[in-house]
Amino acid sequence: MDMKNKKISTGRLALLALLFALAIVLSILESLLPIPAPVPGIRLGLANIVVMFALFYLRKRDALAIVVLKAAFVLTTRGTVAGILSLSGGLLAFIVMAVLLAVFKDRMTYLLISVAGAIFHNVGQIAAASAILKTALWLYLPVLLVSGIVTGFATSILLKLTAPAFLRLRLK
């Protein structure tokens, strides 16, 4: 590997580390915000802003790395169940968002990706929680679908507002 490729690789690693750290900070900040919700565990999904940025402007595998690393962080700080829920929701949301971006390419908006990601994150978590508890929790799905639309809308606005700052960090 020549020095130019190593420098690019080092720069990409630094950017991914910064984005991962930002996702963790947003996740911690979000846990401090009290959100009145009819179902326990509804959150804004602020860390998803970082994943969506990576999906739109970096490599898909960079976004996947952030999802997996965030789930590993949740696993080590909040326990096994929280880690499984984070990973299952994050992976399903990532897959759906990546497929939508691949199929619809330039026609896909922050809003559509964000809402789809939020909804499927909830679906992934419901599926995992149902498997863990050995009971169907799908009755919560209508509330979680509505919350996914609302939180997806909010995170799409936040991504639109913060994307210019993220883009200044992006590798050329």
Task: Describe, in plain words, how this protein is organized in 3D.
The protein has six helices and no strands. With 172 residues, the chain is mainly alpha-helical. The protein has a single domain (3-169), classed as Arp2/3 complex 21 kDa subunit ARPC3 (Orthogonal Bundle). Helix 2 (48-57) runs parallel beside helix 4 (80-104). It is globular. The mean pLDDT is 88.
How is the secondary structure organized here?
Elements lengths: L2 H30 L15 H10 L2 H19 L1 H25 L5 H24 L7 H29 L3
Helix pairs in contact: 1-2, 1-3, 2-3, 2-4, 2-6, 3-4, 4-5, 5-6
- Counting H and I runs of at least 4 residues, what is the number of helices? 6
Shape: globular
Question: What class, by secondary structure content?
Answer: mainly alpha
Order of helices and strands: HHHHHH
CATH C-level class is Mainly Alpha
- CATH fold description: Arp2/3 complex 21 kDa subunit ARPC3
Between the first and last Cα atoms, what is the distance in angstroms?
A: 19 Å
Mean pLDDT across the residues is 88
